[in-house]
Amino acid sequence: METTNKPLEKLNIFSFRGVQMRTFHLTWMAFFLCFFGWFGLAPLMTVIKTDLELTKPQIGNIIIASVAATVIARIAIGKLCDTWGPRKTYTALLGLGSIPVMTVGLVDSYEGFLLFRLAIGVIGASFVVTQYHTSVMFDKKIVGTANAVAGGWGNLGGGITNMVMPLIFAAFVGAGYLPESAWRIAMVIPGAALLIFAFVYYFFTKDTPAGNFEDLAVANAKAAKTKGTLGIAMRDPRTWALFLAYGACFGIEITFDNVAALYFFDNFNTSLATAGILAGTFGFMNIFARAVGGIVADKVGSKWGMLGKGRLLALLLVLEGIGIALFAQSGSIVGAVITMLCFAMFLKMANGATYAIVPFINQKAIGSVSGIVGAGGNVGAVLAGFLFKSSTISYSQAFMYIGVAIACVAAVVALINFEKTERITAETGQLEPVTID
């Protein structure tokens, strides 16, 4: 029995009751599975590198391709959420995204693998739907926490993928398949899971607590109000400040997801399984770290408003940058793991703090703002990917440069006033001052 058709004011993570909590759980589960498709290849790259005879620059291009397509996809998906609805948008994304995941094993060249990695990267836009859907299901008092928990548990898929995919690969090798065949067959598993969940999402969620867009009596009015939301979002300077911030936190997270196993394998001579476990530990922290960021941001916001949230985000970015710089200089595996866990905590908290601000930028363009900010994460990952592609820059040097860049972004975020701004309204097209409660 569904108790209310309004956004919830409380997040009970142990409840599946009502469309709000059911959607909350299904949306983070969908995002979790998307990580298996998106980064399922990352922990297997040592095998794929040998099979396809890839060079370091080629691997760098592949890392960039894995996140580049997501930039455009996230902006488009955000717009679709505003107009088409999150339920249909997520269903289509899961169904279409499953195809390149299941068929990537058909490639036999670097060029083919690069194109498939580009196509698979579109799945990363799933994050935008997750954040949109939780934003409309929960009250503003708790939306930061809800977004952070859903995003964090979904991001947990990045860590679990690094742990599980080598085991799936090993299972196929144990069944008698050669390594060059086993990695190809292993990718069918996450692809099939995505396809199945597309049907689950369609039949068991709704666009809003009151119902689906097409069923609501105000559907036509909703469409009129959301016309031009992308332009509105793009004209707001706060959107671009969060774009930079998310590039400095989530962008580095997915970059680290891509290179961590290789880094530990090459720098500390670990086994493939050990490298995967260490890399997975980084992602596994999403089970709580991103949620902590959202919870703290909501508490700071209730006391010091949006300005306080912005200052909190800047502080977390500074601490993240310092932690990455220390990680880059670690000469032992113990030191590397300790510093990795430290910067991971601040990075993931920054993720949560960013999307504790996003829903308040413009209530009529939540999807578009979420899409642009989410795209910032991937732009950050693309830029970081060029550092790891370079044949003259070591991975340790790349991490050091990233730490410095994050500190610079933190300074920019600290200068932005998230409390007040001018925005162009959808109804009048005129500038008006806005105060965010």
TrEMBL record:
Source species, domain of life: Bacteria
Similarity comment: family membership: Belongs to the major facilitator superfamily. Nitrate/nitrite porter (TC 2.A.1.8) family.
Major site of localization recorded for this protein: membrane
Gene, per the UniProt record: crnA
Domain Major facilitator superfamily (MFS) profile: 23-422
Protein name: Nitrate/nitrite transporter
Transmembrane segment boundaries: 26-47, 59-77, 89-107, 113-132, 153-177, 183-204, 240-265, 271-289, 310-328, 334-358, 365-386, 398-418
Location relative to the cell: Cell membrane; Membrane
PANTHER family reported for this sequence: HIGH-AFFINITY NITRATE TRANSPORTER 2.3
Cell division recorded as keyword: no
Membrane topology: Multi-pass membrane protein
Keywords: Cell membrane, Membrane, Nitrate assimilation, Transmembrane, Transmembrane helix, Transport
CDD domains reported for this sequence: MFS_NRT2_like (cd17341)
Alphabetized NCBIfam families for the sequence: 2A0108 (TIGR00886)
Pfam families xrefs: MFS_1
Species this protein is from: Dyadobacter beijingensis
